[in-house]
Design a protein that fits this description.
Largest sheet: 2 strands, antiparallel
Number of strands: 2
Order of helices and strands: HHEEH
Strand order of the largest sheet: 1-2
Oligomer: single chain
Distance between the termini: 52 Å
Shape: globular
Strand content: 5-15%
Radius of gyration: 14 Å
Number of helices: 3
Length: 68
């Protein structure tokens, strides 16, 4: 029988911090300032994987623009 891998649709702030190699406080600040988009569901913040990708692309594009 084939194995199905379930991928999370949302990430928590802590999961994003771990993925980016940042501390939780820094990641929360990036979320609160809108650098990383998120939605509030009840008392929790959730972040789409594509929003993490957007942040990475924006930061790397800014860095490449400064070195060019």
């Amino acid at each position: 029988m084939p194995t199905t891998t379930i991928r999370p649709m949302w990430h928590t702030t802590a999961e994003v911090a771990e993925m980016l190699g940042f501390g939780l406080s820094k990641t929360k600040m990036l979320v609160l300032t809108g650098e990383i988009r998120s939605v509030k569901i009840g008392r929790n913040r959730r972040i789409l994987p594509s929003w993490v990708d957007e942040y990475i692309e924006r930061v790397t594009a800014d860095a490449e623009g400064r070195t060019a």
